[in-house]
Amino acid sequence: MAGHGHAHGAGAHADASSSTRIAVAFGITAALLLAQVVGSILTGSLALLVDTVHALTDVAGLGVALVAQRLLRRPPRGRRTWGLVRVEVLAAAAQAAALLIVALVVVVEGVRRLGEPTDVPGPLLLAFGVAGLAGNLVSLAVLAGGRAGSLNLRAAFLEVLNDAIGSLAVIAAAVAIWAWGFQQADLIASALVAALIVPRSIVLLRDAGRILLESAPQQLDLDDVRAHLMEIEHVVGVHDLHASTLGTGLHQLTAHVVVTEACFADGHAPRILDALQACAAEHFPLALEHATFQLEPPGHAEHEAHRHV
User: Terminus of the chain with fewer CB atoms < 10 Å: N or C?
Assistant: First the structure.
C-alpha cells in the first residue's frame, strides 16, 4: 500500500511576483550594460571592463532566470510529471558557472596589463562607477524581497550584489587614480572583484549540484525522520528511506514502512498511513508535503531485489 501527500503543481511553487522582480532588475541591468560598454571604451579601465563583462553575465543570467520563472508556472503534463521545477536549478548553476568564467578572464587580462599598463582617466571612471552603483542598488532593492524563498531569485540577487561590489571597487579605483595618480588601483580593483566572485559562485554551484544529484536536503536529518516514523504505533521497521529537493519549496520523501501483519487484516493500515503523512508534514523543519510510503508486512523486504538502508 502506498500513499502520497498533497497534489503538486509547479505553478503552486512559483511566485508570480518573482517574475516581475526579475524583469525589473533585467531592464535596469541591461541599461547599465550599455552605459558600461561606452565607459569601458572611453576610459580603458580593466576594473570597469570587468564590471561590464559582469553586467553582461548579469543580463544573460537574469534573462535565463526570467524565462525559468515563467516555465516554473507551467503545470505538470505528459512525461514531465514534476513540471519544469528543475529549470530554475539549471539556471542558477549556469549563472554560477558564468561568474567563474568572468573571474578567470579577469585574472588573464590583469596579468597581461601588468606588462602593458593603461592610463585611466579618474573623473570619467568615477562617473561611470557611481552610475553603475546607483542602478545596482535599485535592482537589489527590487530583488531583495523574494530571494529567501527562491533559488532562482537568490542567484539573481547574488549576480546583482556582485556587480554592486564591483561598482564600489571601480569607484575606489577612480578616487585613487584621480586623487593620487595611482594607476595600479585599476588592476587592484579588478582583482578584488574577481576574488569576490569566486566564493559566492562556488556556493551557488554547490547548492544547485546538491539538488541535481538528489542529495538529502541539508535541513533534514534522515536518522531523525526514521526515529519519528518508528514511534508510530504498529510500525516495526523503516527502510529504503530517501529524501530530495526537486525545486524551491518542493521536497519529496519516500520510505518502505514495515508494520505488523495484523494491520492488513483488521483494516488498521489506512490509519497508519494517515499517521505517517501527518508525521512527515508536521515534525520536520522542511514541509514534506509530498511523501510516499509503501506499507509492508514483516519479511517482505527479503523479496525486494534492491534494498537500501
Answer: C
Fold equal for 2-212 and 222-303: no
CATH T-level assignment (fold) for domain 2-212: Alpha-lytic protease prodomain-like (1.20.1510)
Mind listing the pLDDT tens digit of every residue in the chain (309 residues)?
555 444 444 443 445 566 787 788 889 989 988 998 998 888 888 888 877 877 777 787 777 767 766 766 667 677 776 767 777 788 778 878 887 887 787 778 777 777 676 788 989 999 999 999 999 899 888 888 766 656 667 777 877 887 888 889 899 999 999 999 888 888 888 888 777 778 878 888 898 889 888 888 888 888 998 999 999 988 999 999 999 888 766 788 999 999 998 888 888 888 999 999 888 888 776 767 688 999 999 877 676 666 555
Domain boundaries, the chain: 2-212, 222-303
Residue range 222-303 in CATH 3.30.70.1350: yes
Handedness of CA 259, 262, 265, 269 (dihedral sign): negative
SS (H, E, C) the chain: CEECCCCCCHHHHCCHHHHHHHHHHHHHHHHHHHHHHHHHHHHCCHHHHHHHHHHHHHHHHHHHHHHHHHHHCCCCECCECCCCCCHHHHHHHHHHHHHHHHHHHHHHHHHHHHHCCCCCCHHHHHHHHHHHHHHHHHHHHHHHCCHHHCHHHHHHHHHHHHHHHHHHHHHHHHHHHHHHCCCCHHHHHHHHHHHHHHHHHHHHHHHHHHHHCCCCCCCCCHHHHHHHHHCCCCEEEEEEEEEEEEECCEEEEEEEEEECHHHHCCCCHHHHHHHHHHHHHHCCCCCCCEEEEEEECCCHHHHCCCCCC
